[in-house]
Amino acid sequence: MKLFGLVFSSIFLLSLFFSNRLIAFDLNQINLSTLNKDSALKLFQDRNIAYPKPNMNFAIEAQDKKEPIIITVAGLSFGEIGCGKLELKYLLNIINFFFPKKDYNDNLLRAEVDDFNKDYFFYEENEPAEIYIENFRVPDNYIEVKLREDAKNSGYNITIIPFPWSRDPEDTKETVKQFQEKMIEVHRKYKDTGRPIHILAHSWGTVLMHETLHRLAKSNPEINIDKFITTGSPLMPANLIVNLFTKIKIFKEDIENRISKPTNVKIWGNLWAKHDMFSNIIKSSDENIQIDSEIENFEPLLMDMILNNKPLKKMAKTDLRNMRNTKAWHGAYIFDYAAKFNSINKEVSISIFKPLVIPHTIR
Fold first, then answer.
1. Which of 14, 34, 64 is the last residue of a domain?
2. Distance (Å) of CA 5 to CA 62, 132, 261, 306, 358
3. What digits encode the pLDDT tens for the residues 202-257?
4. Which of 20, 93, 329, 358 could form a disulfide with 275 if both were Cys (CB 3.0 to 4.6 A apart)?
């Protein structure tokens, strides 16, 4: 809150110097950093000073607002997501969770995934699949570590409560029960403080919390969440994945019908990437923020080189596969994105967590 105090103090001093008449104040007796709404308004009222009301009101409101309690929920281990290409295992997790009674042909879906990878990543016959990021697992506390560090550097004073879990989708049902109990504990501990509760979830953690919040809305309607921020959420996979699902008679409207904004959530913000196959626009959220629009214009250039520029074809393929690397984009919400595309002589560095995730989560 130091930043808000500084803004308030600056506006207060400027209003003194530029008021219609100069009023003498003993500034030694006034602690500007601790002025609250009531004392500030009384100070101005007693001295009949004209001040910029919208700016002053904004500063006062910001000063009075309490810092949030932030619950963090990690996603699957990145090993579950696989390397750059699409992995069947993760698709099965989504299908089995949302459509547990669905009868489908594994072999058919596996064949469709293989064909998809060949087309999407421009693999030719007998060309070995490239491995992008292998044997890489981030620690279980990766969100809170990053959040605590970057929030502190940005001047925020927040309380972070991680909700750990096994990070194994097979434990989803049991984890949701545990999360319900944890949410009740958090509410009981902080309900009298007036501090809002925000949730930052990533990957499969968004699925867990979406289910948890819906159950809480029924069992404990007194528990309210001010903000629910989802990043890389497979609640609605990319359109490319949805098209694969149609092969087993699962359609986009079927998935959308199973997703709704929990009634106990005030604001739901969703961050997604076109190149993250396990995220998409979620219609029932209040806001959708795309994180990879900066590189969309590069793809046509790379595909044109692959098809029409024989000397640069191999290099352009590597660049396109790196650009479409599922694991890189799925982790970019927390770890940002950086890549070099040699065939078009472009180097890209996109900051995501600090300029996008933190403000949407905390403010």
1. 64
2. 9, 47, 35, 55, 20
3. 999 999 999 999 999 999 999 999 999 999 999 999 999 999 999 999 999 999 99
4. 329
